[in-house]
Amino acid sequence: MKPYVPEYVGTVTKYVFVDSPNTTPQDIATAAYEIAQGVMIKETCFGCQITGTPEDVSRIIDHLRTLDPYRIFIKDRGFPPGDSRRCRADLGGARPGYLGHEYEMSFIRYISHGLKETQELTKASLKKAAGVALPLEEPLDADILEQLFSEEK
Question: Which one Pfam family would you cite for this protein (predicted)?
Answer without folding.
Answer: DUF2102
